[in-house]
Design a protein that fits this description.
The chain is of the alpha+beta class and 403 residues long. It contains 12 helices and 8 strands. Keywords: Flavoprotein, Oxidoreductase. Residues 246-378 form the Acyl-CoA dehydrogenase C-terminal domain.
């Protein structure tokens, strides 16, 4: 897939939300079939690029609208409600635009923002297998004259097959941070680079069409102008991690909303249980209770999603250790609430729909499969720990990309 030329220029946040709602309606129509057949959404991702929705965080001075996190989050929620796989694909695009905003030089920002405004899409090459923990990168960047050479293998590279640029996080060989840890950087590698290969070997039970496959880099040469420092992002207060997390929460909240809506439709089609003594299943008091509990979970997740996004916007306007900490905690809370809501709503769906809802042809399992797969991205149990420490003792959460 190559960059879309002359992508639509969105002029304000209201237009962004209208475009997102329109695209979401289009994407939702064939989402069940794409999931069932594992059909990759090439046409849909191209439509997303043409729409201008990949440009929302580009600063005004570079031709964008510098949309608030609250608006960007709602765009992701709408897309997640329609098709969580498609919503997942631009997540890393926005995450690595944030790397450029925080650490890119003026020249780098100007170059890549122009690419994005023309319709170019970023994808990630971050996660690895075989390292002791996920924050270790065996992939390396070695300086060689005016270039760098990248070697390594990355997994779970969501959207790489659709992207124009692959953002590769790697260890800078021979360089350490002030704390003595290996320094990291991000190399923005064109999809067509010699030595770069992408294999669609993602076989997850959910998020089936994200193309989260394997990226291999065999002595790939990258000009120094396409390498951006990564480690320094966390030397000072930042909203890098909280923005990444709030967008994940938006996808989960979208799944929760879609599952609840499907549960309601299923309840209206199902037969009442004979002991309820009612003519319609929706009048069964026990199903009413289940629906009410699921609705509360979805409403709470939606409210916390908006609160977290607003906290991030506040922190970006006035960035201090305190405002960044509040943004991280609020985003973590939204992530926990949205994960719980997506799993609850996608399970209650079968209670309300009855046996027929388990039909393979109906493919209603996709809601739970997507929720269960996406909520494994990073553990909510650790977010609860940070929330608890903040609540009891005001302990500032650590700075990293998952908080």
């Amino acid at each position: 897939m190559t960059a879309v030329q002359n992508a639509h220029r969105i002029t304000d946040e209201a237009e962004a939300l209208a475009v997102a709602a329109d695209l979401a309606a289009q994407f939702a129509a064939d989402a069940p079939a794409r999931d069932a057949d594992r059909t990759l959404p090439y046409d849909e991702v191209r439509a997303l690029a043409r729409s201008g929705l990949l440009t929302l965080s580009v600063p005004r001075e570079h031709g964008g609208i510098d949309a608030r996190t609250e608006t960007l989050t709602e765009v992701f929620r709408l897309l997640g409600e329609a098709d969580p796989s498609i919503a997942q694909i631009p997540h890393s695009h926005y995450t690595f635009l944030e790397v450029l905003r925080l650490q890119g030089t003026a020249e780098q920002r100007e170059f890549f923002y122009k690419e994005v405004l023309a319709g170019a899409q970023f994808a990630n090459a971050q996660s690895e297998r075989g390292t002791k923990t996920i924050d270790v990168d065996a992939t390396t960047l070695l300086e060689d004259g005016t270039d760098f050479v990248v070697d390594g293998k990355k997994f779970y590279c969501t959207g790489a097959l659709f992207a124009d640029w692959i953002a590769v996080r790697a260890t800078l060989r021979g360089t350490t941070t002030a704390t003595g840890k290996p320094a990291k950087a991000v190399a923005y590698v064109p999809r067509s680079a010699s030595g770069l290969s992408i294999v669609d070997d993602w076989d997850g039970m959910g998020q089936r069409t994200t193309a989260s496959g394997t990226v291999t880099l065999d002595s790939v040469r990258v000009p120094a102008s396409h390498v951006v420092p990564f480690s320094p992002i966390f030397d000072a207060p930042t909203t890098y991690g909280s923005q990444a997390q709030i967008l994940h929460a938006a996808i989960d909240t979208g799944i929760a909303s879609a599952a609840l809506n499907e549960a309601v439709r299923s309840a209206h089609r199902s037969r009442p249980y004979f002991e309820a003594g009612v003519a319609d299943a929706v009048d069964d008091p026990l199903l009413i209770q289940l629906a009410g509990e699921a609705s509360l979970a979805v409403r709470a997740a939606t409210a916390m999603l908006r609160e977290g996004a607003r906290s991030i916007d506040t922190a970006r306007t006035s960035l201090t250790e305190s405002t960044a900490a509040v943004a991280s905690i609020d985003a973590a809370a939204a992530k926990v609430a949205s994960a719980r809501a997506s799993l609850e709503a996608s399970s209650v769906l079968f209670e309300l729909g009855g046996t027929r809802s388990a039909s393979e042809s109906a493919n209603l399992s996709r809601y739970w499969r997507d929720a269960r797969t996406h909520t494994l991205h990073d553990p909510t149990r650790w977010k609860i720990q940070h929330i608890g420490r903040w609540t009891l003792s005001g302990t500032v959460p650590p700075r990293h990309g998952l908080l």
